[in-house]
Design brief:
- By secondary structure, this protein is α/β, with parallel strands linked by helices.
- It has two domains: 190 residues, Alpha-Beta Complex (2-enoyl-CoA Hydratase, Chain A, domain 1); 49 residues, no CATH class.
- 45% of the residues lie in helices and 15% in strands.
- Strands 1-2-3-4-6-9 form a six-stranded mixed β-sheet, with helices on both faces.
- It is globular, with a radius of gyration of 19 Å.
- The model has no long low-confidence stretch (mean pLDDT 94).
- InterPro entries: ClpP/crotonase-like_dom_sf, Enoyl-CoA_hydra/iso, Enoyl-CoA_hydra_C, Enoyl-CoA_Hydratase/Isomerase.
- It is an enzyme of class 4 (lyase).
- GO terms for molecular function: enoyl-CoA hydratase activity.
C-alpha cells in the first residue's frame, strides 16, 4: 500500500489537513489530489470541526500539477478534469478554510490558496502563475484566483509568469497576511481562534452570502438580505448568541475553557 501523502488531524475544533509529499514539492499527483479531497470531505462532515487549516511539510506549499504524471497522461487524463471539483469543494466548504504557507506556491497550488477563505504565509514565500512558460493556460485556477486579484495585476502576472513576493501577494488580494516565519503559527492561530467564535450555521450562511451574485436592483438586494438577517435573529443559534451576549458568557458553540 502506498504511503499516505496527506494527513488529517483534529484538535479543539480545528482540523489540520497537511500535504506531506516533499519529495516532489507537494505537487498535485493523482494520489495527493484524491487524499486531499477525502480528508476535506471528512473534515466537513465532522460536526466537531469548526475550522479547517491546509498546511504542508517541506519547504514548498504546493508546486502545482505533477508534471511527470502529465507527461505520461493523455489529454483526457491529466488531472485537470477532477481538479475543478477539488477547488470548488474548498471554495464552497460550509466551514472556513485557512491556507497556511511556510513556503512557495505555484500554478495549481496558488489556485488552492485562492480557494481558501483566509490565507497566511511566511514573508519569504513566493508565488507565480507559471503556466504560460510551459505552454499551457492557467484556465482552471483562474476561476478561484481572478475573484481575489485586481484586474491589472492579474493580466500582468498571468501573462508574464513572473515570480512575485508574499508582500505583493498581500497587496493584490491573494493573501490576507505575510509574517516572519517564526510568527506563522501564531498568526494562523489568531485567525482560527477568531473564526471559531462564529456560530457554525452563521458562518456557513455568511460564506454563501459572500459568494452570491448581487442583484442589480438595490431594493431587491435589501429585501433578500432582510429576510436572511431576520431568519438568523429568530433562529436557535441566533437566540443562543443573543442570550450569551446578555448573560456575559460564551455561546454554546465556543469551546469552554
Amino acid at each position: 500500500m502506498a504511503e499516505e501523502l496527506v494527513h488529517l488531524t483534529s484538535d479543539a475544533g480545528i482540523a489540520t489537513i497537511t500535504l506531506d509529499s516533499p519529495h516532489n514539492r507537494n505537487a498535485l499527483s493523482a494520489q495527493l489530489r484524491r487524499e486531499l479531497r477525502d480528508h476535506l470531505e471528512n473534515a466537513i462532515a465532522d460536526d466537531a470541526v469548526r475550522v479547517i487549516v491546509l498546511d504542508h511539510t517541506g519547504p514548498v506549499f504546493c508546486a502545482g500539477m505533477d508534471l511527470k504524471e502529465s507527461r505520461a497522461a493523455g489529454a483526457e487524463d491529466q488531472g485537470v478534469n477532477e481538479f475543478p471539483a477539488l477547488l470548488e469543494r474548498i471554495w464552497n466548504s460550509p466551514k472556513p478554510v485557512v491556507a497556511k504557507l511556510a513556503g512557495p506556491a505555484r500554478a495549481g497550488g496558488v489556485g488552492i490558496v485562492a480557494a481558501c477563505d483566509i490565507a497566511v504565509c511566511a514573508d519569504t514565500a513566493t508565488f507565480a502563475f507559471s503556466e504560460v512558460r510551459i505552454g499551457v493556460v492557467p484556465a482552471v485556477i483562474s476561476v478561484t484566483v481572478l475573484p481575489r486579484l485586481q484586474a491589472r495585476q492579474a493580466h500582468e502576472l498571468f501573462l508574464t509568469g513572473e515570480t512575485f513576493s508574499a508582500r505583493r501577494a498581500v497587496e493584490i488580494g491573494l493573501l490576507n497576511s505575510a509574517v516572519a516565519a517564526e510568527a506563522l503559527d501564531a498568526e494562523t492561530r489568531r485567525y482560527t481562534d477568531m473564526l471559531a467564535l462564529g456560530g457554525p450555521k452563521a458562518l456557513a450562511a455568511t460564506k454563501e452570502m459572500l459568494r452570491r451574485p448581487r442583484p442589480t436592483d438595490m431594493g431587491e438586494d435589501f429585501t433578500e438580505m432582510l429576510a436572511l438577517s431576520a431568519g438568523f435573529f429568530a433562529s436557535e443559534e441566533g437566540q443562543e448568541g443573543i442570550r450569551a451576549f446578555a448573560e456575559k458568557r460564551k455561546p454554546s458553540w465556543v469551546p469552554q475553557s
